[in-house]
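User: Could you check the structure of this?
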Amino acid sequence: MDDAVAIKKCLDGERDDFRHLVERYQRQAAGHAVAILRNRDDASDAVQEAFIDAFRSLASFDTARPFYPWFYVLLRNRCYKMAVKNRETESSTDIEILAPQVGPADEERLALEKALSSLSDEFREIVTLKYLDGLSYDEIAEHLQIPRGTVMSRLFHARRQLQAKLTGKFN
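Assistant: Sure, the predicted structure tokens are below.
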């Protein structure tokens, strides 16, 4: 089923068709939420709340546009609200960005996780969108609702910071 068709059916009262959108984008949304929040449980809560927000705001969605970039803005806002709330209530040094992997690359993976977690939220998000999701500059610009040049600039600076943090880690 096409996203626009599912949305139209939802707006016409067939609320069960929203499940199509949840099933199609839940995994991708969870990956983005983990990258922002650095906690799988919080990310899961944020994704669920963002889908609820999307369902409630569906009438304002322009079906001529793709669903996920619109939804991503809702998800991102929900994640940032949760991050602020979490900072106020706890300070955690346990950070989990990437799923654990067994094998000889553990040391490199751990160094990468540590380097990613030390980036600002803005840089960590843009690196995730580019390298873990494989989005183009234009797709990232649409997701984040920023100019393409800003995407390029943030990626440049994020890569420089990552390189500085990782230099010498694997030699």
